[in-house]
Amino acid sequence: QVQLQESGPGLVKPSGTLSLTCAVSGGSISSSNWWSWVRQPPGKGLEWIGEIYHSGSTNYNPSLKSRVTISVDKSKNQFSLKLSSVTAADTAVYYCAVLIAAAGTAPYWGQGTLVTVSS
Amino acid sequence: QSALTQPASVSGSPGQSITISCTGTSSDVGGYNYVSWYQQHPGKAPKLMIYDVSNRPSGVSNRFSGSKSGNTASLTISGLQAEDEADYYCSSYTSSSTPYVFGTGTKVTVL
After folding, report:
1. What are phi and psi of A89, to 5 degrees?
2. pLDDT at B1 > cutoff 80
């Protein structure tokens, strides 16, 4: 059973860069899945940020595209998120997830990590 | 890409059945069988309840079922229990500007 675990700083200063990593265990990041980042501001709904394939191909939410970079490290079986020029509006719980899994298997998510943007 | 439309709240008494709707367009819900439903308790990560419109992951109670008609997907909870009180979100693959879209969320209250 594949498990995802997010990690990274819980506090980022305004105008700084948010950096998170998602470690994949119990499976290979080189499988036929697109690996996503999703966020949820406190008290609000879910927002898809972007995704990456093991080849390095990416798709981003147009509303965040200018500030987002998602990368993959196959040697460490993990993928990462960088969000630049953050403001308080970027305060949220950030999840890594596979939203549509290969071969008709069930989607899966990490437990999420809260990132607060504050000075 | 606009969010899928869900009712803000749905309530029911223990033992009753309730249905949550998730309305999209032919570019998302209506066009693909990639609708998922998530349950989220306060402070917790979303938990997958239904995927690919009507498939239930291992370990999820058979009181939860999913269906789709046209551009609207539905989640039915039968035999409502106190533990079902939570927020519920739908999601769908979409051919629009982003490959995925989430619903607006529904708060389920057990009376």
Report:
1. -65, -15
2. no
pLDDT digits (tens, 9 = 90+) for A42-87: 999 999 999 999 999 999 999 999 999 999 999 999 999 999 999 9
Residue entry with tokens 């066009």: B31
Q: Residues in chain B, how many?
A: 111
Q: What does the pLDDT read at residue B68?
A: 98
Question: Residue B54 and residue A48: Cα distance in Å, rounded?
Answer: 22
C-beta of residue A111 within 8 angstroms of C-beta of residue A98? no
The answer to whether residue A45 neighbours chain B at the CB level (below 8 Å) is: yes
Give the nearest partner residue to B45 out of A61, A95, A99, using CB atoms. Answer: A95
Q: How many DSSP H helices and E strands does chain B contain?
A: 0, 9
Is some CB atom of chain A closer than 8 A to the CB atom of B91? yes
Phi, psi for B46 (deg, rounded to 5): -60, 140
| Candidates A39, A46, A63, partner chain B, best to mutate (most B CBs within 10 A) | A46
**CB of A10 closer than 8 Å to CB of A114:** yes
Per-residue model confidence as pLDDT tens digits over B49-104:
999 999 999 999 999 999 999 999 999 999 999 999 999 999 999 998 899 999 99
C-alpha distance from residue A85 to each of A17, A67, A79, B54 (Å): 6, 7, 20, 40
Return the structure tokens found at A89. 């509006």
For residue A107, give the nearest of B36, B101, B103 by CB distance: B36
